[in-house]
């Protein structure tokens, strides 16, 4: 319950146009300090949980092990983690490309799902809680690679989860 409270607080901050990306280039030590706030840590943790759910626990764990082995006693960058995940997925999924959309954009997407008979369509757009005129910028070009998981009436959640990667503004 406490974790959910933290996540929703971070989402409220991230839904403002004055938010910042999880990862960005910095020029000074002050900028480094500004980057490491609750938003960065909580959103970062949430993104790792999203990735773990999408890849499955075993694949995610193997990727973490490769990452830790390859970078033990050394330095690393965020791309190194994504590269380790790519190594484990054998190139079947470009984890780096997917996760870059989450860490370099501020905010998060609103996904709208519409069902017409047996056809389901999904659409994404940037979610803004409140537009702050003094900090407003157009984010029309934002596009996330959103891993969506779903079940159908032929399955139950533990045995037949399907996945779809929404990497365009809309899809079916």
UniProtKB/TrEMBL annotation:
Keywords: Aminopeptidase, Hydrolase, Protease. The keyword DNA-binding does not apply. GO terms for biological process: peptide catabolic process; proteolysis; regulation of blood pressure. It comes from the Eukaryota. The keyword Hydrolase applies. It holds the Pfam family Peptidase_M1. Residues 7-102 form the Peptidase M1 membrane alanine aminopeptidase domain. GO terms for molecular function: metalloaminopeptidase activity; peptide binding; zinc ion binding. GO terms for cellular component: cytoplasm; extracellular space; plasma membrane. This is LCAP aminopeptidase.
């Amino acid at each position: 319950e406490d974790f959910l409270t933290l996540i929703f607080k971070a989402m409220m901050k991230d839904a403002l146009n004055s938010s910042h990306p999880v990862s960005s280039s910095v020029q000074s030590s002050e900028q480094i300090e500004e980057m490491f706030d609750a938003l960065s840590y909580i959103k970062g943790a949430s993104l790792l949980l999203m990735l773990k759910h999408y890849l499955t626990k075993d694949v995610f764990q193997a990727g973490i092990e490769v990452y830790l082995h390859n970078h033990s006693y050394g330095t690393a960058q965020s791309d190194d983690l994504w590269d380790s995940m790519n190594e484990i997925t054998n190139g079947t999924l470009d984890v780096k490309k997917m996760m870059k959309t989450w860490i370099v954009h501020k905010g998060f997407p609103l996904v709208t799902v519409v069902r017409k008979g047996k056809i389901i369509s999904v659409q994404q757009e940037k979610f803004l809680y409140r537009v702050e005129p003094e900090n407003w910028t157009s984010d029309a070009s934002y596009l996330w690679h959103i891993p969506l998981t779903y079940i159908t009436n032929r399955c139950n959640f533990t045995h037949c989860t399907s996945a779809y990667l929404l990497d365009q503004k809309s899809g079916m």
